[in-house]
């Protein structure tokens, strides 16, 4: 039991440092814009670039490394990830920084996919939903601790020291991986064709679009969370760090609630999540006129962001284990891959809205994607129910 707790901590730490690096840009947008003399909206596209590279590279790298020892693969991914952050630390111009972020993004998705595969391997069946929700919570903890810490460090000591903090945590994480995780984990060998057979399943094709539109809806406004707080809601820089922590706590609560959902109603509860997102986002233009009302709305909508995570992750794993066992690592990566397609779509949409309209438009812009996600989850639940009924034995 002690070994399981240590291993669980290491998997959460992997997610934390990956999330810290990815989300750090949100908290230091203004500082980077000042340093490199580029508009904040342009710096915001670093989020888009990171997410696109993350999403495109992850399936290819995941398929490649899943044919070999997964422990060695995880160490290699974390090594390249650390190198990418070292390059960010030394960036001398905006283009150099963008290239360094591409290096980091290219392996981050494969690293978390392997982490989730290890979670499925080491956790007893009753603990799987719990551990998966905690691994996803690692990203939320990065929002609570990492992003505010990175913002505070950047404000007081410079943005390079924020990246140095990520580098140090990455090196500690690699050391703990070496000391704690099993070294003999491999999955059933299969050709590339055998692994991608997973995509023949219509449930998978519909299901993988859900994290995409869920995160697209959120990131229309989340990419510009710092200017929303300081410009739109008119809070001070000192209050900014506190509010980023509060919103991160909201995200952690949502992740833990996601674990409970996966143990209970699962995907059947998700349509209500997207209805709530739609309502809250449509309220944003009005809510942003009142500082603390705006904070409450942001808190609630950020709470909804991770609720899909554990139910959809378990759904992917269950489909793969039953019908496509050779594709388990790839199935583990789907949530991460398409979440980042969603981040890219949402942040790009937010950039267009902010550049051409104003911050008032980001809420209704995100609400459009919430409607799409609602339609997809209703269709998936109906399909799953019909399949269950068709396989139920006649009495």
Automatic annotation (TrEMBL):
GO molecular function terms noted in the UniProt entry: transmembrane transporter activity
GO CC annotations on file: plasma membrane
A Pfam family this chain is assigned to: MFS_1
Stretches that traverse the bilayer: 9-29, 41-65, 72-96, 102-123, 130-153, 159-182, 203-225, 237-257, 269-288, 294-316, 328-354, 366-383
SUPFAM superfamilies named in the record: MFS general substrate transporter
Keyword Transmembrane helix: yes
Compartments reported by the entry: Cell membrane
Keywords noted in UniProt: Cell membrane, Membrane, Transmembrane, Transmembrane helix, Transport
CDD domains: MFS_NepI_like
Membrane topology, as annotated: Multi-pass membrane protein
Name the UniProt record assigns to this protein: MFS transporter
Organism per entry: Lentilactobacillus rapi
């Amino acid at each position: 039991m002690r070994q399981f707790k240590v291993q669980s901590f290491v998997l959460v730490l992997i997610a934390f440092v990956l999330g810290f690096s990815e989300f750090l840009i949100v908290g230091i947008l203004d500082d980077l814009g000042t340093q490199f003399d580029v508009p904040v909206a342009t710096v915001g596209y670093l989020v888009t670039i990171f997410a696109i590279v993350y999403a495109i590279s992850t399936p290819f790298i995941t398929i490649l490394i899943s044919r070999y020892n997964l422990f060695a693969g995880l160490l290699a991914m974390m090594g390249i990830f650390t190198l990418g952050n070292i390059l960010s630390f030394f960036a001398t111009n905006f283009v150099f920084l963008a290239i360094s972020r591409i290096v980091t993004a290219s392996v981050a998705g494969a690293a978390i996919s392997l982490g989730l595969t290890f979670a499925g391997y080491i956790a007893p069946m009753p603990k799987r939903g719990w551990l998966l929700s905690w691994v996803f919570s690692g990203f939320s903890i990065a929002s609570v601790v990492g992003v505010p810490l990175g913002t505070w460090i950047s404000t007081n000591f410079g943005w390079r020291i924020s990246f140095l903090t990520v580098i140090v945590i990455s090196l500690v994480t690699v050391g703990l991986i070496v000391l704690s995780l099993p070294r003999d984990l491999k999955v059933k060998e299969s050709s590339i064709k055998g692994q991608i057979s997973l995509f023949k399943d219509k449930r998978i094709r519909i299901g993988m679009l859900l994290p995409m539109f869920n995160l697209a809806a959120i990131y229309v406004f989340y990419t510009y969370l710092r200017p929303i707080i300081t410009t739109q809601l008119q809070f001070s820089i000192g209050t900014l760090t506190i509010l980023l922590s509060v919103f991160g706590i909201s995200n952690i609560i949502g992740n833990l609630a996601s674990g409970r959902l996966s143990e209970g109603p699962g995907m059947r509860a998700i349509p209500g999540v997207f209805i709530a997102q739609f309502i809250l986002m449509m309220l944003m233009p009005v809510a942003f006129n009142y500082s603390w009302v705006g904070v409450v709305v942001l808190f609630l909508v950020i709470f909804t962001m991770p609720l899909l995570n554990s139910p959809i992750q378990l759904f992917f794993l269950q489909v793969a284990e039953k019908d496509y066992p050779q594709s388990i690592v790839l199935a583990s990566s789907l949530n991460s891959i398409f979440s980042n397609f969603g981040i890219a779509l949402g942040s790009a949409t937010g950039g267009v809205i902010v550049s051409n309209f104003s911050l008032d438009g980001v809420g209704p812009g995100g609400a459009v994607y919430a409607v799409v996600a609602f339609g997809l989850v209703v269709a998936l639940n109906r399909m799953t129910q019909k399949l269950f009924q068709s396989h139920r034995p006649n009495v």
